[in-house]
Amino acid sequence: MSTVILLAATGLGLGALYFLVASGLSLIYGLMGVLNFAHGSFLTLGAFAGWEVARRTGADSWWTFLLSILIGAAVGALFAAFTEFVLIRRLYQRHIEQVLITVGLALATVALFEGIWGTDPVFIQGPAWFKDTTELLGARIPNDRFVCIIAAVLVLLAMVLFLKRTRYGMIIRAGVENRSMVTALGIDVRKAFTLVFTIGGAAAGLGGVLASHYFGYVSPLLGGSLLIFAFIVTVIGGLGSLTGAAVASVAVALLQQFANFYFGLGDLAVVLALALVLLFRPAGLLGRKS
Amino acid sequence: MKPILNIAGLNAFIAGQQVIEDVSFSVPATGITALLGRNGVGKTSTIKAIIGLIGRTGTVELDGQRIEKEETHRIIRRGVGYVPEDREVFSKLTVAENLKLAERDAHPRRQLVEELFPDLVKRSGQLAGTLSGGQQQMVSLARALLNENKVLLIDEPTKGLAPKIVQEVADTLAQAAATVPILLVEQNLQVVRQLADGAVVLSGGRVAHTADSAADFLADEDLTRRLLGVHDDGAGAAAPAAGSGAGEPAPEVAR
């Protein structure tokens, strides 16, 4: 029983990280039709920014951790806004070019990060509480899992509130459904594009800082390795659906953890789940039908 | 009186294919101008080209100002209300959210909309996707009427609606036309006869005929059979063109 609880808690922690990446991916694709292969770079840069803050201000302090989260999210947001404004904006409706430029940016930023911080993983320290465990139904759960889960739940709530309660949230929800009709109401939908990129980048940057604590290190490849699963989550959840991304993040991470522990086939199980969803529910669990 | 909309040499393209060619006509500053033609002749494309939803070349003047180089949202903000074919309400937003999103004036005409569409007030919290076709059309019309516009572009507002709802929509359009000029794409010739002042008829992506009086055009049996494939006798029945299916029930709309 304690093993199941431990696997579930670890899976939920991993699912939280997937959600932080997938939420932005899903909204970006849903609103703009852009498959953003550079999204992992927002995460990696956020993680390195968080690590730099921790390194310079004392890694074991809670204040440092909170500051690193803020800086990581801000750096991710700025990088994402810059990417949308400078690179993507000229390429709407040109999907091949979008893929080429975001793949190119992902590759270039990995090389850039390796140039700045080296190719080896950089190990990170957090508040001492992170390394402790909390007993839950007989299982000893590493505390950093709870931090990831709480952060992802807060981000989900904040995004839902933003989407439901603000005018820009309304524009984004409408734009995910029918972008040209939003324009035909006299709304400059490009502002919403930049905002969605910025929000997605902030979530990814925050996810980067949390991922560095979850895995215990930062590396230039951190974002890329999480991005693959975030894409799978986005497709399974339904492109453009925030709730779908949340549900699929948890489902994929739990499946991965359990399949890995009992059969050693976590990644294969996830790919099989993706194949089944594509075969029987191509729009995803909560996606709109095309 | 100067026309509110002046279109000259308009060409439009969808996915690289030209869909209308050298279309020129004017929309007077009052009343309803019907844009007519068989299916697929480019009526919807003309409307979309005017507001830049599809690629276009040529000249479009709104109230004397050239707008053909402007982006769609800027054209709309100059005072163009657009009611698309098939309503295009945001199905996952509530009725109230659909309307709120359309408000672009500092003082939107909520009271007018509430008077014209009292049913929408009752359904303000309902998801627009769960409304009937007629109710969705009311939302679509309400979005355009919320703001002060110089012209309304309305694309097949009665399509797929029950006869009773068609009359409600027609009455609403008649009320709207008292304050703002309308360019109306409409297949239901009885509605055209009831509402339209002038008419522009497209054929094969070009303007084939313009008429100062839509009623006179519809009364011309040869012309309507040739350009619309149908003739409306004004008594509620439309007879098909010769060779379009003798012995079959007469279609109610131009096809």
TrEMBL record, chain A:
It is a multi-pass membrane protein. Signal peptide: none annotated. The chain crosses the membrane at residues 6-27, 34-51, 63-87, 99-124, 144-163, 192-215, 227-254, 261-280. The keyword Secreted does not apply. The keyword Signal does not apply. Pfam families: BPD_transp_2. Coiled coil: none annotated. Keywords: Amino-acid transport, Cell membrane, Membrane, Transmembrane, Transmembrane helix, Transport. Its main location: membrane. It is found in: Cell membrane. InterPro entries: ABC_transp_permease, BCAA_transport_permease. It comes from the Bacteria. Belongs to the binding-protein-dependent transport system permease family. LivHM subfamily. PANTHER family: ABC TRANSPORTER ATP-BINDING PROTEIN, BRANCHED-CHAIN AMINO ACID TRANSPORT SYSTEM PERMEASE PROTEIN LIVH. This is Branched-chain amino acid ABC transporter permease. The lineage of its organism: Bacteria, Bacillati, Actinomycetota, Actinomycetes, Micrococcales.
UniProtKB/TrEMBL annotation, chain B:
This is ABC transporter ATP-binding protein. GO terms for molecular function: ATP binding. Residues 236-255 are annotated as: Disordered. Residues 5-229 form the ABC transporter domain. Keywords: Amino-acid transport, ATP-binding, Nucleotide-binding, Transport. The keyword Oxidoreductase does not apply. InterPro entries: AAA+_ATPase (IPR003593), ABC_transporter-like_ATP-bd (IPR003439), ABC_transporter-like_CS (IPR017871), BCAA_Transport_ATP-bd_LivF (IPR052156), P-loop_NTPase (IPR027417). The keyword Nucleotide-binding applies.
